Amino acid sequence: MFSKLGQVMLYVNNQDESLAFWTEVAGFHIVDEVILDEGMRWIEIAPAKDSQTSIILHDKEVVARMSAGVNLGTPSLMFFTDDLDRLYADLSTKHVTVGEIVEMPTGRVFNFADNEKNYFAVMERKV
């Protein structure tokens, strides 16, 4: 039911310095940059403009304030699905820990935990 691996979340202490490293040193491209609610800045980078998987540089402090319980030490994975409700129900039925479905500007999303309590996100993008 997952449709693809889309983005890897990287929690950083300074987004500007990290962006400079990834673009100027590592040669990544900026795919998108958006300011969201509560001061969250979404910077999407990828090794090529047409990459299917990208990295999102998030401010570690802002994420910590907004999302208690998110592991900031390890990158999180963002999966995509075409049917969020069905996937949510399927994971719940299998006794997977799932969070609330949240409406974001880019689509609907929820978190789930694996057997070691590592949290991942699943999004159904707005069309």
Structure overview:
This protein is an alpha+beta fold and 127 residues long. It contains 3 helices and 8 strands. Strands 2-3-4-1-5-8-7-6 form an 8-stranded mixed beta sheet. The chain is globular and about 45 Å long. The two termini are 18 Å apart.
Task: Give a quick rundown of the structure.
With about 130 residues, this protein is an alpha+beta fold. Helix content is about 20%, strand content about 40%. It has 3 helices and 8 strands, in the order βαβββαβαβββ.
- Elements, N to C (H/E): EHEEEHEHEEE
Shape: globular
| Distinct helical segment count | 3
Q: Give the fraction of residues assigned to helices.
A: 10-25%
Assembly annotation = single chain
Q: What gap, in angstroms, lies between the N and C termini? A: 18 Å
Point out poorly predicted stretches.
Answer: none
Strand order of the largest sheet: 2-3-4-1-5-8-7-6
> What's the average pLDDT?
87
Radius of gyration: 15 Å
